[in-house]
Amino acid sequence: MAEGIFARLKEGRFDPDYVPIFESKLFFEGEKRERQTINFGVLLALATVIATYGVITDSTATVIGAMIVAPLMTPIMATGAAVSMGASRRAMSSITLVTLGVIGVIMLAMILTALVPGQLVSLTQNPQITSRVSPGLLDLLIALAAGAAGAFAIGRQEIADSLAGVAIAISLVPPLCVVGITLFHGGFIEAGGAFFLFLTNFIAILVAGTIMFGLMGLPGAIKMEMKAETRKKAMVAIMIASILLIGILTITSYQAYQATNDQIVATNLVTEWVGLSQYQVQKVVLTRSGVNVILVGEGSLPPLETLSEDMEEQFGRMMVIQLHTIPEKKVTYPSVLAGL
Questions:
Q1: Among 13, 62, 100, 254, which residue's CB has the most CB atoms within a 10 Å radius?
Q2: For the segment 138-162, what is each residue's pLDDT rounded down to a tens digit?
Q3: At which of 226, 245, 271 does a domain end?
């Protein structure tokens, strides 16, 4: 079945007459190079402004708008096309444009963040930030599909305008803005996670785009001299990077799964500890040092020592319990008990 799909894909190869238009869309060359570069820089800067303040204000619609405006998908697609063609100069030129764009977005995001009062930026409570600092295998799969869709769309003249829709499915500029925001506020771990998400998307788009262009027959449609050795080396480098990426994402995905499982276990332990009291569990959050518990209700509670022993038995280490109740009371165990 797969062979039949690939056969049909190859039958509809690149139209040689469309190649010049295709190249003019992706590669900044010739007389239009300066104008295309300026357009790229202006749109990327505006997208950065939109995305940075969209992230800070936790506005999903605004962030999506920035993803549509951002032109960063174009040079990444151009890199994939250049690798498929075996055009080393075009590949290096496109990679350089991506690199300069990445640096520019991060620096501009830091400047824009400096203009906002610090109390408006939360690195732990803002979903636009927290959702972009822990990439996993699902992010890789999404990026692979988006890269293949982008290559297929721009490789077909009749559907080339669909590239903007693909841009919504993949996150490029928002993670870089998160890098700038978190770096400005000293969140180096968060910044590293956000940059790794961008790197995941970049490599996945590059891999999927290169393969899709090859399947669509781009190398056979161009009229320039191809360098097979250059293409081979580039593909090997991309595949090695992909394998390393998959390995890292597998580890982070497992860690995320483990953290979620531990969170469920901790919540169940607290729920059992509360038992038949008049309190209800509102929130349980695991931390590096212990667990934060928020309860709603009044009256007496079972001994905190019991909960501490259950936690220690389950997780194999001493757990500091931060207990908050609504109406507000606060207890730290082990420590001087107060408020209950």
A1: 62
A2: 888 888 888 888 888 887 776 656 6
A3: 226
